[in-house]
């Protein structure tokens, strides 16, 4: 046979943003070997007529740091056409880590990323200490998609400073030198960069702030200097959304100027931020580009939303004393208890009690949620808020919510559009998506198992902003595919993927574009120790191919595990001067 696999007759979008073409693609030895009208035969062939063919999608903002060590499928991202993920974002992760520091990192990840402690205790093998050790452990794994890693600041701080780091003490000159050297060593071993967070919501479950949060500019510069010493890697940062956007951007720009390395950051339309902060950050990005700095905002394509429900991490009564007493029971038993009139009266008379102010704030925010019934609704109308419906019914929010929570035997979901929906529409999102200095990201796969299910971003993006968008808002399909492939690859320096071209990695999607559809998330107890997580199925993915082999057919795993660790340097070059040749969605 001439090829291992030939994909025939599809409408090929090569990731460059240029017009598509009908053609064949021949794959051999994990690479794209031929494109065009192929006369040779493949050991396997797929008829892609009336389908679109794209590069595999690349998600540069995930948290599969733990999941990649205990299971082979990086679901739910791998159910949505994603073939490469970059993890270690937001300054949290599990390496480097000394044995006596493991509990600190577990508790931090539990709070920041909503991964239950029992899941990590049962699932993490801890067969590493240094960050290069961690990469070696990942290198031995066989997965359904490729993974790549970044060095998390909070883990690094604890590794160097121990309890001093966890307690937010200022680092000594020696501490800074060690952090700088460890970043350089990690990047030399294959890390794609370093990450940190300034978001005050990032806390342990008990409410303690993440170690990175009070870090001064000299510590952030030390991390950036580590990238400079390695002459490679990207600096990823979560700004402080409650701060003035202009002063926060000034800090980001100063870091980029100091290190002259690419920097990306979370860019959101944040409720109650002074002014339209995201607009001032866009203006700052434009000026930075004119000044030769490599800065890019990571943008979500829909509201950054949270789910509430009896079978999830939070609901209006999850921190009430009477509910805590039954919280560990199976769902059916909890529902039965809540249907008891005496229990109901007792619970409604209580108030939430929790040491974490973020938890209390989220519970209070339930009043602004929307009940999901027939299907996903990511753009709900304000009049369907629970608080509005409760007022119309002449009930308190708690009374009204109590009965709704018991629907579907306790499985009813409630959606809170938090960031990116401050005006009750997605106009800000569209403006951010259309900017030349942003990239679509922030799906957070591998985290927030019982609170957020945004790993479906790629499917939503293609549905909402391409196929189903109003003409004035529509993003051209060729541009949208570039946004999911070549642009994120270029943002972090993955030069071997994200394009359909001879010699590139053979990661592809074959998609029935008109059939793309998202389902309502479901809850499965399939994590270590029986932990729960949300899954969100999608229709329309005919096949996903990783390293030349079909890993998913019609949304179902084939059992093929051709995904591996991607090391910067060995498998992809460092991020360079950006990607000006790739057209931008307009």
Q: Would you write up a description of this structure?
A:
The protein has 586 residues and is α/β, with parallel strands linked by helices. Strands 1, 2, 3, 4, 5, 18, 23, 24 and 25 form a nine-stranded mixed β-sheet that branches. A six-stranded parallel β-sheet has the order 9-10-11-12-13-17, with helices on both faces. A three-stranded parallel β-sheet has the order 6-7-8, with helices on one face. Helix 8 links the parallel strand 10 (193-197) and strand 11 (234-238).
In short:
The chain has 586 residues and is α/β, with parallel strands linked by helices. The protein has 20 helices and 25 strands. The radius of gyration is 23 Å and the shape is globular.
């Amino acid at each position: 046979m001439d090829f291992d696999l030939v994909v025939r007759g599809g409408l090929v979008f090569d990731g460059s943003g240029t017009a598509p073409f009908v053609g064949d693609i021949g794959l051999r030895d994990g690479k794209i070997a031929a494109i065009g009208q192929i006369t040779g035969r493949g050991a396997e062939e797929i008829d892609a007529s009336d389908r679109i063919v794209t590069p595999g999608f690349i998600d540069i903002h995930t948290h599969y740091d733990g999941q990649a060590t205990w299971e082979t499928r990086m679901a739910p991202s791998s159910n949505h056409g994603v073939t490469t993920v970059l993890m270690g974002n937001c300054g949290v992760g599990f390496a480097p880590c000394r044995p006596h520091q493991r509990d600190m990192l577990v508790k931090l990840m539990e709070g920041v990323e909503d991964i239950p402690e029992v899941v990590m205790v049962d699932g993490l093998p801890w067969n590493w200490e240094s960050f290069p050790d961690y990469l070696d452990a990942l290198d031995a794994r066989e997965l359904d998609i490729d993974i790549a890693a970044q060095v998390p600041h909070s883990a690094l701080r604890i590794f160097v400073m121990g309890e001093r780091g966890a307690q937010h003490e200022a680092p000594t000159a020696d501490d800074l030198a060690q952090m700088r050297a460890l970043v350089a060593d990690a990047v030399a071993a294959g890390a794609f960069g370093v990450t940190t967070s300034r978001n005050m919501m990032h806390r342990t479950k008990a409410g303690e702030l993440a170690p990175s949060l009070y870090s001064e500019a000299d510590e952030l510069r030390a991390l950036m200097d580590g990238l400079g010493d390695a002459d490679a890697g990207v600096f990823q940062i979560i700004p402080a959304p409650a701060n003035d956007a202009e002063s926060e951007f000034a800090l980001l720009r100063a870091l980029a100027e100091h290190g002259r390395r690419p920097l990306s950051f979370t860019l959101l339309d944040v409720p109650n931020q002074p002014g339209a902060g995201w607009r001032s950050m866009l203006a700052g990005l434009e000026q930075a580009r004119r000044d030769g700095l490599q800065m890019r905002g990571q943008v979500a394509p829909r509201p950054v939303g949270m789910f509430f429900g009896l079978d999830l991490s939070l609901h209006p009564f999850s921190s009430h004393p009477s509910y805590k007493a039954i919280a560990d029971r199976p769902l059916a038993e909890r529902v039965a208890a809540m249907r008891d009139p005496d229990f109901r009266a007792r619970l409604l008379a209580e108030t939430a009690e929790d040491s974490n102010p973020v938890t209390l704030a989220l519970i209070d925010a339930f009043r602004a949620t929307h009940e999901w019934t027939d299907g996903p609704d990511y753009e709900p109308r304000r009049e369907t808020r629970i608080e509005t419906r409760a007022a119309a019914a002449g009930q308190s929010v708690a009374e009204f919510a109590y009965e709704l929570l018991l629907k579907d035997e306790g499985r009813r979901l409630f959606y809170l559009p938090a960031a990116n929906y401050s005006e009750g529409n997605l106009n800000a999102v569209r403006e951010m998506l259309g900017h030349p200095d942003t990239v679509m990201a922030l799906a957070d796969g591998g985290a927030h198992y019982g609170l957020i299910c945004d790993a479906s971003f790629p499917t939503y993006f293609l549905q909402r902003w391409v196929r189903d968008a109003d003409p004035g808002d529509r993003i051209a399909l060729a541009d949208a595919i570039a946004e999911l492939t070549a642009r994120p690859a270029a943002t972090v320096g993955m030069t071997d993927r994200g394009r359909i071209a001879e010699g590139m990695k053979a990661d592809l999607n074959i998609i029935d574009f008109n059939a793309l559809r998202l389902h309502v998330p479901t809850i499965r107890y399939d994590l270590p120790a029986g932990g729960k997580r949300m899954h969100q199925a999608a229709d329309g993915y005919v096949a996903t191919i990783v390293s030349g082999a079909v890993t998913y057919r019609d949304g179902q795993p084939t059992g093929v595990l051709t995904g591996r660790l991607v090391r910067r340097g060995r498998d992809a070059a460092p991020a360079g001067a950006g990607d000006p040749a790739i057209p931008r969605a307009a």
